Amino acid sequence: MKQGPGFLHVARNVILVSLALFACWTAAFYITKSAYAYISWNPHDLISLLINAMLGFIFFGLFIVIIGPLVKGREYDFLHEMIQALRSISRGDFRVNLDSDFVKRNGRPGHNHPFAELVDSINDMAANLKVMEDLRQEFISNVSHEIGSPLTSISGFARALKNKDMDQEKREKYLTIIETECVRLSRLSDNLMKLAVLDSSEHASHKTSYRLDRQLVTLVLACEPQWDDKKIDMNVELEEVEIFADEDLMIQLWINLIHNAIKFTPEGGKIDVFLSQSEDKVNVRITDSGPGITKQDQLRIFERFYKVDQSRTRSMGGSGLGLSIVHKIVEMHDGTISVFSEPGEGATFTVQLPVRSA
Ligand SMILES: Nc1ncnc2c1ncn2[C@@H]1O[C@H](COP(=O)(O)OP(=O)(O)O)[C@@H](O)[C@H]1O
Ligand SMILES: [Mg+2]
Predict the structure, then answer these.
(1) Most buried by CB count within 10 Å: which residue of 122, 183, 253, 278?
(2) Which Pfam families match (predicted)?
(3) What is the mean pLDDT of residues 5-30?
(4) d(CA 241, CA 352)
(5) 331 sits in which H/E element
């Protein structure tokens, strides 16, 4: 019988209360009896019964008042502990771990203690806030690092330029480095701004119906100077596809992917851009003939600030935010993005979007 433990608990309480009542009325009986003997009074049976009953109730009340807090004491202590935990969370100290065994030990068998859910929620909240706080700290340290290194380089070369004896060629070289680092800083602030806007819950996307193939052609042509410079063979095969999406965000998505493909493809390499539609899904595939990405790195390239090769990416001016912006935009359109790559054999990024996202 599943109800067994609950029934035993109720039975135990009934027996305890009955024993308390029995003790109180017995005490009342003997106390009144000796009091009557002491003052030599022999009251009527009814009067004696009423006085007895009243005294019994008073004793029982006192018993509850005295015993109650003793029984409830541990529970109050635990409540206090929970309040303390909430106070430390509000102060930003998330090292909170309430003893959930307490509620298990003190709950009625077969029933959840009323605090049980609260304790789990407080522990979960503290753990989640701790994760968010760690991410925030990591983000700040990444941003500081990304800002710090170009600034060091800019100030170093600017100081060197103060030397009046420097020849023109060296001067030009230093000025170019300073310019590149400034461009990097401004791109970083641009990307950070974009991420902040995408992250904010107030970001309203403006979705419209438009021709995705036309958008992709325009963007590939806009990048022509870059891929033409590297003599890249750009192969574009697009079906006519109409999509319902935020046009501006989509531009950002394709530009980031196409720029990466161009950036990582060596001179004389090849890039393919495919667009097709199958049922209610749109598939965009961008394949390059760059160095490829290892399986391990494929798991992390969508993380903010993640760069596979710090020095190579640095020389190419990346900050590791491009793909996290891509990921965010795909997510906002209920789509998916995947990467297929073997080191040394190029990389393929596939974006799948619903034709009409919610
Ligand atoms: N097409 C690609 N081929 C090889 N590696 C790539 C490619 N696209 C991205 N990566 C790797 O993923 C990392 C993250 O990319 P991304 O977020 O766009 O940052 P970045 O600002 O460096 O371009 C890059 O540093 C690079 O190492
Ligand atoms: Mg990039």
Answers:
(1) 253
(2) HATPase_c (PF02518), HisKA (PF00512)
(3) 84
(4) 13
(5) helix 322-332
